[in-house]
Each structure stands twice: as C-alpha cells, then as structure tokens.
TrEMBL record:
GO terms for molecular function: ADP binding. Pfam families: DUF7779 (PF25000). This is DUF7779 domain-containing protein. Transmembrane segments: none annotated. Residues 179-267 form the DUF7779 domain.
C-alpha cells in the first residue's frame, strides 16, 4: 500500500470513529473501513488519480485494492478518477475530454464576471465572441481557461482587449508561461521545489517549520513566516497552487508540476530537489540518538511519508532517464538517504513492506555508491 493510501485510510478511520488516534497497521485499518462499508448504506468512496504511477507494482496494488472495495457496491458507490485509460477497460467508465464550446465560454464568462458587468448587450456579445476566439488555441482545456480568467481579472482587462493583445498565443503552456513571468525568483523557486513533493497535500505546517531556520542556506527562500506567507499568496493568486483552508494544505496540479520540471535546467532541477529534501528533513520528526524505535514519532512521520515517497520516485526516475541524477555524483547529500532509512524502517514497522523495500533499497544503494 502506498504512503498516501495508508494515510487516507488512517485519517478516515479516525474521522469515522473506528479507532483512536494511535497509529495502527494500515492493512488492519483498511479492513475496518471495509467492515464499516458493509454495515453502512448510501456511501461514496472516491479514489482520486488512481493508478497514475509509472511503477507497475503500485498500479497492480491499487487495482487490487479497488476490486476489494468494489465488491461492497451493492449499497454504496465508488468513484474513480484517473489519467490511466487502461482503467476504463478494466472497470468501465467515461472518458472526459475537453469542454465543449458552450460550456467553456460559460466558464470563462462566469469567472471573469462579464455577466455581472455594467455592459450593454452589444458589449456582452463582443466579450462572448472574444471568448470563443480565445478558445480556438486552448483546446477548451479547463486549466487553460482558469489560467486565462485569472490573468484577465488580475490585469483588470476585458476579454476583447486580452484577445487583441495575445491573439494566437493562448495555448496552455503560453498561459502558464505568462503566469510564471509574474513570479519573482523566490516564488518560482518555491513552486519548482513543490514539483518534487506529493502534489495533493503540501502541509503549511511543514513549510512554516522551515521558515526562520537561518543556519540552513537551502531554506533562505522562506527565511521568515512573513516571507513565506507572501510567496504562498503569490502562487495562489496566479492559480498555480490551490489552498484548502480547513486542512491547511496546498495542492499543485500534476500538469503544473510537469511544466515546472520541463522548463528547469538540470542545475535548477537538482537545486529544487535538494530544497525539497531539506524541507522534508527539517520537518521530519527525528528520534533521540540511541533509541531504535519511538512510537510517539509515528503520527508526524506519517504526515510527511508521501513526500518521502515522491522524492524517492523522482530520484529513481532520474537514475533511469537520459539526464544526470537529481543528486550529482560529485555531491554528497546525507539528508536524503537518512530520510529514506528512517521512513523505510517506519514502513516496515507498520506493515508497508513493499514501500519499505523501495526506500531501504534506494537508501542502501545511495550509501554504497557514495562511500565508494
């Protein structure tokens, strides 16, 4: 079971009153969840972004897990979202394509509040026609529409003026490039770092714990809580990240992460990866020297385990790719393998044996390579 699934099941079981806050084997928690579903009617279980990993072992694991819960669908429902078209053939479903023109125009008009502006009918018709022309190059992609609407609202301009200024330049990458151009160096570095973390839940407490750590040169971009809050607001205002106030978490769309990584040089990718490692390491609860296992640290470590897993996956892919590794061969970074070891042994204690093997295997290989 992946770190993210384990954390989700653990959180659900607490919220449903199936257990207290003490950490428990995630496979037992999944069993409690299934038993609760068997006894409860009219529930909805959502597997968001299921089976989008490149790791075939994780793909099969997620599919097996979905099959287990699917058997209880006689009195509940399961909604699966995925970028993997193979799941449609296996489980059935609907492939969502681009918005049609009518829905796309309505979304842009609503987000830019044209329908609430004090325009006469002729001006409204011109705005709607400009919206249609804009979409000729965005393929009616919702992310592109949202990005364009944010630029228009931020610049306090009309759709007709936007189209006249940027005609034939409204591809999704162009929209993002315009948003990136508005970022200062620190905001861009923070977003690039997020491209290597778990995109679904980047905890504010993790980032705030790193602000004000003056002795860490890698963390200078968030050197104070005030500076971090300013950078966070900048990214939110440019629709490059979203904010869940209730959970106090940021979220980055996966296509935005991919775009960040694609536009970085190898040096920038290594720097951003190193920053991600430094932030996770700074927030990772460390045990007292001489103590092999401290259960009190588990809740905090579970919160950040999905980030360790993400860093592990990105580093592994960099070893298999055409570019150089994310940690240069002539550099020594002991923080990364130390996190892998601590997270790996924690996964072993909790019964996440596949993930433990991946983390410990990579950590051990890193140590052996560095010491040669």
């Amino acid at each position: 079971m992946s770190a993210k699934l384990a954390a989700s099941f653990s959180r659900f079981s607490v919220e449903l009153g199936l257990r207290d806050n003490e950490p428990e084997n995630p496979h037992s928690v999944a069993k409690y969840m299934r038993e609760w579903l068997e006894k409860t009617k009219n529930w909805l279980l959502v597997f968001d972004n299921a089976a989008s990993d490149e790791n075939e072992k994780l793909l099969q694991e997620k599919e097996d897990l979905i099959k287990i819960f699917r058997s209880e669908c006689n009195h509940g429902s399961i909604l699966i979202t995925s970028r993997d078209e193979k799941l449609i053939r296996k489980f059935g479903g609907v492939e969502l394509r681009q918005l049609n023109e009518e829905d796309a125009v309505e979304l842009l008009i609503t987000r830019t509040k044209v329908d609430q502006a004090n325009f006469n009918q002729s001006s409204i018709d011109e705005e709607i026609e400009a919206a249609r022309r804009i979409f000729e190059n965005t393929d009616y992609n919702p992310l592109g529409i949202i990005g364009i609407s944010d630029i228009i609202r931020r610049d306090s301009t009309r759709l007709t003026d936007f189209y006249a200024s940027y005609s034939n330049q409204h591809s999704l990458n162009t929209v993002w490039r315009r948003q990136f151009e508005k970022l200062n160096k620190d905001a861009l570095n923070l977003l690039n770092m997020m491209a290597y973390l778990d995109p679904d839940r980047i905890q504010l407490k993790m980032l705030r714990q790193c602000s004000g750590v003056s002795h860490k040169k890698d963390l200078e971009i968030i050197s104070s809580p005030r500076k971090f809050d300013h950078l966070r607001s900048t990214l939110i205002q440019n629709s490059l990240v979203s904010y869940n106030e209730e959970l106090q978490e940021l979220r980055v769309n996966r296509p935005v992460q991919a775009y960040c990584r694609s536009r970085m040089t190898l040096q920038d990718r290594c720097k951003s990866f190193k920053l991600g490692v430094a932030i996770v390491k700074q927030s990772w609860p460390s045990q007292t020297r001489g103590i092999m296992y401290d259960p009190a640290l588990l809740p905090g470590r579970i919160d950040y385990l999905s980030h360790v897993e993400s860093l592990c996956q990105h580093y592994t892919r960099s070893l298999d790719g055409l570019d150089s590794p994310l940690i240069p061969e002539d550099k020594v970074n002991w923080e990364f393998p130390s996190i892998l070891y601590e997270a790996g042994w924690m996964c072993y204690e909790k019964g996440l044996f596949d993930l433990a093997q991946d983390l410990l295997g990579l950590g051990g290989g890193f140590f052996r390579f560095t010491l040669q």
